[in-house]
Design goal:
Layout: H1 14-24, E1 28-29, H2 41-52, H3 65-79, E2 89-92, H4 94-106, E3 112-117, H5 123-129, E4 133-138, H6 148-154, E5 159-165, H7 177-187, E6 193-197, H8 217-220, E7 223-228, H9 229-232, E8 241-244, H10 247-260, H11 266-275, H12 280-283, H13 285-299, E9 315-319, H14 328-339, E10 341-342, E11 344-345, E12 358-362, H15 367-379
Parallel strand pairs: 1-10, 3-4, 3-5, 5-6, 6-7
Antiparallel strand pairs: 2-8, 7-8, 9-12, 11-12
Helix pairs in contact: 2-11, 3-11, 4-10, 13-15
The protein binds 4'-deoxy-4'-aminopyridoxal-5'-phosphate and glutamine.
């Protein structure tokens, strides 16, 4: 039998490729974004308690209500923004499922979706498998600044959605209040939906404020916000996240979600709901990761890599143009094989052929690993 691929140009994700290469060559793995230290014992115990206390059958389709309440309280507390826990918050199997489901629920054949590149790699395939057309706005290292006239020129009557991501993976940059206001101005009086990927909302440095879409009234009414507990609670393997949106959007989302996953891991939801009662569990992350960023950067300050300190996320982009002119994918692979350190080349998130000679390193690692990584990087 023969089938025409729905995604003819898509191979295996770079995260899988680089982690596998790191394992094969026994390299330090600073490529795929995940911590190499344990998830909190308290949280693990709360999930175990949930299992022992009977939370072992299907959760409600939209998620455990205590968890949705905890999330609603968080939005009130941090952003003075109200989401109705029953109607406007849904628990998902990681942010990835939320993103896929949002796109599937709204993007029709030939609809246009604007994304900013470098872009996290799950957006474009989800758009295209649904028959949509990706309209890319390419940004450049090291600042990844947005030219809002360019964005305005890309918006058309076919624009169904705009996907944004701040703090940004892979660049580690953040959007300013002015960026959000520009987006709000451009989308006002349109039917454009915003998908605001805010999985790194609690990882932002140097006292900067996270610019959530819910802080801007006109944006909020057209936005889905997606989040990931894997990022916030150091357990990417649990694959639990959520999304928030006004009821008229969320009701469409749930039409797809109920047949996509129906509901997600119940004991983990209950455990996280209990854990979130202590706000420090998520509010302490900025300081925790800023210490790691600063340690890593101070240790590599004398290396030949150039950088601007990451403003958020747990990734640092390093410019290697003083070392070699190699294509970034080749250089990342060579570093893994020869120097035993794995990273992510940024060009894979760009428009074809755009190679700024930068690699992304994940510093959600023990200090010991960061010291070892820096020793290697200083020798390159
Ligand atoms: N969006 C971004 C920007 C991410 O970095 C990630 C994962 N690292 C996701 C979405 C997916 O999150 P999850 O692992 O919860 O599916
Ligand atoms: N989000 C993680 C990263 O950016 C990877 C997630 C995945 O492997 N799909 O590294």
């Amino acid at each position: 039998m023969q089938h025409q691929s729905k995604l003819p140009n898509i191979g295996t994700t770079i995260f899988t490729v680089m982690s596998a290469l790191a394992n094969t060559h026994n390299a330090l793995n600073l490529s795929q974004g995940f911590p190499n230290y344990p998830s909190s014992k308290k949280l693990n115990d709360l999930v175990t308690n949930a299992m022992n206390n009977g939370y072992n059958q299907y959760a409600p389709m939209a998620g455990n209500l205590e968890l949705r309440l905890a999330i609603a309280n968080k939005y009130n507390l941090l952003y003075k923004s109200t989401y109705h826990p029953e109607k406007e918050i849904t628990i998902t199997a990681g942010a990835t499922q939320a993103i896929y489901t949002i796109i599937s629920a709204f993007v029709n054949v030939n609809d246009e979706v604007i994304i900013f590149k470098p872009a996290y790699d799950c957006y474009q395939p989800a758009i295209e498998v649904n028959g949509g057309k990706t309209i890319a706005i390419q940004l450049s290292a090291p600042d990844y600044n947005i030219n809002w006239n360019d964005v305005a020129s890309k918006i058309s009557s076919k624009t169904k959605m705009i996907i944004i991501n701040t703090p940004h993976n892979p660049s580690g940059t953040i959007w300013s209040e002015d960026d959000m206001l520009q987006l709000q101005k451009l989308t006002k009086d349109t039917n454009i939906i915003i998908l605001s990927d805010e999985v790194y909302e609690h990882i932002i440095f140097d006292n900067e404020q996270h610019q959530s879409a819910c802080l801007f009234n006109n944006l909020k009414q057209r936005s889905f916000i997606t989040a990931s507990f894997g990022k916030t609670f150091h357990n990417t393997g649990w694959k639990i996240g959520y999304c928030c949106a006004p009821e008229y959007l969320m009701s469409e989302f749930r039409k797809v979600h109920q047949f996509n996953v129906f509901s997600v891991n119940h004991p983990a939801q209950k455990g996280i709901a209990d854990y979130m009662q202590d706000r420090e569990t998520y509010l302490g992350l900025n300081a925790f990761f800023q210490q790691k960023r600063d340690l890593f950067l101070s240790l590599i300050s004398k290396s030949r890599f150039k950088f601007q300190p990451s403003q958020g996320t747990y990734f640092q982009v390093l410019d290697y143009s003083e070392i070699t002119n190699e294509y970034d994918v080749d250089f990342a692979k060579r570093l893994t094989k020869e120097f035993k350190i794995a990273s992510i080349p940024l060009s894979v998130f760009n428009e074809e052929g755009k190679d700024d000679k930068v690699l992304r390193f994940c510093y959600a690692k023990t200090d010991e690993t960061l010291v070892k990584a820096a020793e290697i990087l200083c020798k390159i």
